[in-house]
Amino acid sequence: MTKNVIVSIKGLQMMGAGEDDTIELISAGTYQEEDNQQIIEYEEVDEENQEITKVMLVIADGHVEIRKSGVTQVHMIFEEKQKTTSCYNTPYGELMMGLDTTKIKMIKTEDSMAIILQYGLEINYNFVSDCNIVIKVISAND
After folding, report:
1. Which of 5, 20, 39, 78 is within CB 3.0–4.6 Å of 64 for a Cys-Cys bond?
2. By 3-state DSSP, what share of the chain in percent is helix, strand and coil, each rounded to 5?
3. Radius of gyration of the chain, Cα coordinates, nearest whole angstrom
4. Under a CB-based contact definition with an 8 Å cutoff, are residues 117 and 82 in contact?
């Protein structure tokens, strides 16, 4: 069964020397459970050119995937205490992205869930920052 949800994502990049960068996104989406996984789908709108990127989150025990397709394309895999790499395709070219995940925490209730990801980010094999993402999914009142 698919449920309508509100997805809130807050990301923090800690660049050091007081240079932190925070992003926040709120979007309507859908939620379903399938094969012991939670699947959340929503859309992001590029502020610059108003193009849409479709996003799918796949959450399983100790494992989170973020798949984006549209103006940007990436398949990020977060596994606690693991480093993963993926190709991040942007309108400006390709980047090699490394994710060194230190923590994945999921809190789930009947009508909501929160996923906390902590990881080190590398771009083209160079460390960029430590990052935190908090994803909140709340059942929408239909």
Report:
1. 78
2. 0, 75, 25
3. 15
4. no
Q: Interior CA angle at 10 toward 118 and 112, to 5°?
A: 90
CA separation for the pair 127, 26 (Å, rounded): 28
Tell me the β-bridge partners of 135: 9, 115
Report pTM.
Answer: 0.89
d(C-alpha 54, C-alpha 70), whole Å: 6
Tell me which residue of 51, 12, 59 sits closest to 31, measured CA to CA.
59
The first and second tokens of residue 119, run together, are 């990881």
Within 10 A of 40 (CB to CB), how many other CB atoms are there?
21
- The position carrying tokens 């994502």 is 9
pLDDT digits (tens, 9 = 90+) for 12-60: 887 666 677 888 999 999 999 998 999 999 999 877 778 899 999 999 9
